[in-house]
Design brief:
By secondary structure, this protein is mainly β. Helix content is about 5%, strand content about 55%.
Length: about 950
């Protein structure tokens, strides 16, 4: 039913868009202009409906709809004063509103509530306008601690996706270029939403939304909530990020952009490539890497179950491409297009927005990969490899949104987003392996395609007969996939005469196929009842998340002596001529724990109040949340063996929260908050599935014995807004964890990486923020502004003396205190921006640095692996020429590498190179 509803909504959106285009009026304003914008309550940030907007001294006026939006069209060119009035609010006059020919000026306005009628407030248009101002107004009015970055700031950075943009936000860092860390807490402790709706994960190893899936060209803003409120799911502790896609610009408009970029480590230089499929440019495998049709779906491919001839035919049916080849890499390319329109169909105001983006990029990184097994300074690494990896990343997205305003008090919104990213990798590693006591060569080909389809239908209704009670509902369906077809890996070993010979090791001759499909079905509803100047909110949510995880593994084994064939290249060795009944034979290596189904059902109800009392504002309530989660491994083939242990969690939690704000003046907020939240094991962490990344690497395996964690959160913040676009803020926070879940590594018969509940942990820190123009300090610098933030975090984990596994098995480990995994002791962001008085030119320099953080937690004699700090310096220049905009950007200008250390030794290094990009944007139609 949810799928059918989403499909109907998407089709309806497309039909309405086509109808609107056919029946829309002329796209120009026939020599005139217009004004559009949004009006919100200055104290709550909520949109105000039925507000009257007048252009002084003219007959032109308008009124806001349910979303607080208004549009006044066909105004002659000139400079005007705009008057805004609403009963219960102080009137406001905005001066200096410039209306130009064939353009629609954007003017967002805030109104302050008044108990008695006050004289009209007068402000200039420049003060009232701008996305930075809107975000600061939202932050100032919010009942909780928030930080945000808007499209205006995103456009002044070289970041191509949400992951890059978020690292500029106070207290936020990004791990592996896509995973979210807030206040030193990653994975399960921080979550992401899309326009307020939950999102599934495309990552089989963690329940985090890969933020590189969301192109920056589609983003209106990203808001990070640092404190919990009962109307949000209770499974975040560091914070929750709401990714908000583009909103309607008003009227009809179109924007087209093209871009390219060059990287010093990759562009026009030799990298590694291999022959793939014809649809790789779309991030889709065309079947080239699929499991061959000859492979049976219900029988394990081993010689005891299939005949010799069938085994030979199956072994020869796989692709014979095994090794990467040198290939010159081109420059990167990107493009985007957005279209928007507003019209009226059968008395209903309809707004439509459609957008699409595409990018094709390449990166080559020189690698160092080492693994230590002791902390002894003179101990040789278990593995000591160097090499290179080339990755081609294709990313494209389609977004559609329609608003149907049936009346000023009833609205339906339909959103649909499809985004796909593929990473096509070719890797070579070579070096010493102590276990084999010789040098090895490792070749790997890997194609991973990730996609997400998110759909929501939501309604907003203002019930005037119930004292302007608001009713909001949302139905959603989202599907995320991760497909890794035919990972190929071979290992060669050096012999006495210096030549390399193919060896039949664990990952050598491997063909690995895996896919993941996560589905989210969600429904929520809430009622907001005005209570004086405050409100009472009551609501509930149902969320059903399920996952299908599929894996098959195949390996080629020797059937007899290889002779001189063992010295052949991989492509020659694994050719059809050498497959059974000759030198090599295919054997399936799929394990009983390789496949699993998982499901999580969340049922929640909450009640909360938001009460302003003079200079005091109290927002709080409680959420009752029940979660049932199961992870069921299954054998792909029925061999009559006992079932593998399943994992199950069933918890009901009462999750209270209270946020208190004291505003002694209009420019100062003092905030305090307390809440209880939880963190649950992720599907992958409970599944017994295991895999080794490379010869001599860690064996990563899940732990079904994990239990959920409980966290108490305390926050304090002081905010000062000396000017409408300036702020100074200082925050402090403390978090107390019960049974935190951590990934650990310990030596056994091989190096094992798994997850476990530690006894306890604590985390505390501070955040300092500054944003201001330099005009108050030096008049000559009036066109410059600075922004910066510093986050300091300290954490302490008390580990246990044993690792608990399923079935009651226990492994003794050495207890100790350490920092939380992924937590940086500090994060620094800074930016300096120059604005030309014409508004056509901006130049921005940006800096980012994070402190050393634990990448992998060691146990026993095995020390922790640390990721070293990176100094990231970027610069962006934007220049407008009428409807054309040129953007030049340089990133990683200090050429910093990603470096990981263990016991003072570099165990991993990846070069990143400097990048320079250029893009042209064209505005078409009304702007």
């Amino acid at each position: 039913m949810p799928r059918r509803l989403m499909r109907v909504g998407l089709v309806a959106t497309l039909v309405v868009f086509a109808t609107a285009q056919a029946g829309a009026q002329d796209p120009t304003l026939e020599g005139m202009g217009g004004i559009r914008g949004r009006i919100v309550d200055a104290s709550t940030g909520q949109p105000l409906s039925r507000v009257q907007v007048f252009v002084e001294g003219t007959p032109w006026s308008g009124a806001t709809d349910l979303n607080g939006r208004y549009t006044i069209g066909r105004i002659p060119t000139g400079v005007y004063r705009v008057i805004v009035r609403q009963i219960g609010y102080t009137p406001k006059t905005v001066t200096g509103v410039v209306v130009a020919t064939d353009e629609v000026v954007s003017l967002d306005i805030t109104l302050s509530a008044s108990v008695i009628q006050l004289s009209t407030i007068e402000v200039s248009a420049e003060v009232e306008r701008g996305s930075a101002l809107a975000l600061i107004d939202h932050r100032k009015a919010a009942s909780v601690l928030t930080n945000a970055i808007g499209s205006e700031e995103i456009g002044r950075s070289p970041d191509s996706d949400a992951a890059g943009a978020l690292k500029r936000v106070t207290g936020v860092t990004i791990v592996e270029d896509r995973s979210l860390v807030i206040r030193g807490l990653q994975g399960r402790y921080s979550s992401a939403r899309l326009n307020g709706a939950p999102l599934p994960s495309t990552d089989p190893d963690r329940n985090s939304v890969p933020l590189d899936l969301f192109p920056s060209a589609m983003l209106e803003s990203i808001v990070a909530m640092k404190t919990y409120t009962p109307d949000q799911p209770g499974d975040y502790t560091g914070g929750v990020v709401d990714i908000r896609t583009k909103d309607f610009p008003g009227g009809r408009s179109a924007k087209l952009s093209f871009g390219t970029s060059w990287n010093s480590n990759t562009s026009f230089k030799d990298g590694l490539r291999y022959q793939g499929g014809d649809l790789d440019f779309l991030g889709v495998d065309d079947g080239t890497r699929a499991i061959p049709d000859l492979v049976p779906t219900d029988i394990k491919v081993i010689d005891a179950l299939v005949g010799d001839q069938q085994l030979q035919d199956i072994g020869r049916s796989f692709s014979s491409v095994w090794e990467p080849r040198p290939n010159t890499q081109p420059v990167n390319q990107s493009a985007s297009l957005s279209l928007a329109d507003q019209t009226n169909i059968l008395g209903t105001d309809v707004s439509l927005l459609a957008a699409g983006t595409y990018s094709n990029s390449y990166s080559t990184k020189d690698l160092i990969e080492r693994i230590l097994v002791t902390a002894a300074a003179d101990e040789e690494p278990e593995t000591d490899y160097t090499g290179a990896v080339t990755e081609r990343t294709v990313r494209w997205s389609l977004f559609g949104r329609s608003n149907l305003l049936f009346s000023p008090t009833h609205q339906l919104t339909v959103r649909s987003l499809y985004t796909r990213t593929s990473d096509d990798q070719a890797r070579e590693l070579a070096g010493y392996n102590r276990d084999r006591n010789t040098n090895l060569q490792n070749y790997r080909l890997r194609f991973i395609s990730r996609s997400m389809w998110s759909n929501t239908v939501e309604g907003d209704h203002l019930l005037g007969m119930l004292g302007d009670t608001r009713f909001h509902w949302r139905a959603g369906y989202a599907r995320a996939t991760s497909d890794e077809p035919d990972r190929r890996e071979v290992v060669y070993e050096e012999i006495a005469d210096g030549r390399f010979i193919w060896r039949e090791l664990t990952n050598s001759g491997l063909r690995y196929f895996t896919s993941l499909a996560d589905r989210d079905y969600s429904g929520s509803a809430d009622v907001t009842v005005p209570v004086g100047r405050g409100e009472f909110k009551l609501g509930g949510l149902y969320l059903d998340k399920d996952r299908d995880f599929f894996t098959r593994r195949f390996r080629y084994r020797t059937r007899g002596p290889l002779g001189n064939a063992a010295f052949m290249s991989p492509d020659q060795l694994f050719s059809s001529d050498h497959i059974a009944p000759n030198l090599l034979e295919l054997e399936e290596d799929t394990r009983r724990t390789d496949n699993y189904d998982a499901d999580q059902r969340t049922r929640a109800a909450y009640a909360m109040v938001d009460l302003p009392i003079d200079i005091l504002r109290i927002s709080g309530g409680v959420r009752l949340e029940n979660v049932e989660q199961t992870v069921i491994p299954y054998d792909l083939f029925d061999l009559g063996l006992p079932a593998v242990d399943s994992a199950r969690i069933d918890n009901t939690d009462a999750l209270p929260a209270i946020n208190i704000t004291v505003a002694p003046t209009d420019a100062i907020n003092v905030r305090a908050a307390f809440s209880r939240t939880v963190a649950r094991p992720e599907f992958r962490e409970q599944a017994p599935f295991d895999f080794v990344d490379f010869a001599g690497g860690f064996l990563q395996v899940g732990n079904p014995a994990l239990v959920r964690s409980s966290i108490l959160n305390y926050d304090l913040r002081v905010e000062w807004f000396p000017e409408p676009t300036s702020l100074v803020a200082v925050s402090g926070f403390y978090k107390d964890f019960d049974h935190p879940i951590e990934q650990i590594v310990f030596p056994s018969s091989e190096l094992i990486s798994t997850w476990d509940n530690n006894e306890s942990a604590s985390l505390y820190g501070a955040e300092i923020e500054l944003r201001t123009s330099l005009r108050p300090f030096v008049d000559a610098l009036e066109n410059f502004s600075i922004a910066g933030n510093l986050t300091l975090v300290h954490s302490r984990v008390q580990s246990k003396d044993s690792l608990q596994l399923s079935g009651g098995e226990s492994i003794a480990i050495t207890p100790r205190e350490r920092a939380l995994q992924g937590q940086s002791p500090y994060v620094i962001n800074g930016s300096l921006t120059y604005f030309h008085p014409s508004g056509r030119t901006t130049i921005t320099a940006l800096f980012n640095r994070f402190g050393q953080r634990i990448d992998k937690v060691g146990t026993q004699v095995l020390p922790d692996v640390f990721e070293n700090p990176i100094n990231q310096l970027d610069m962006v220049v934007q220049q407008g020429f009428g409807r054309v905009s040129l953007r030049l950007a340089g990133s990683n200008l200090m050429n910093a590498d990603a470096v990981y250390e263990q016991a003072g030794q570099v165990v991993r290094r990846a070069t990143r190179g400097r990048s320079v990009s250029a893009s042209l944007s064209f505005g078409l139609g009304s702007t």
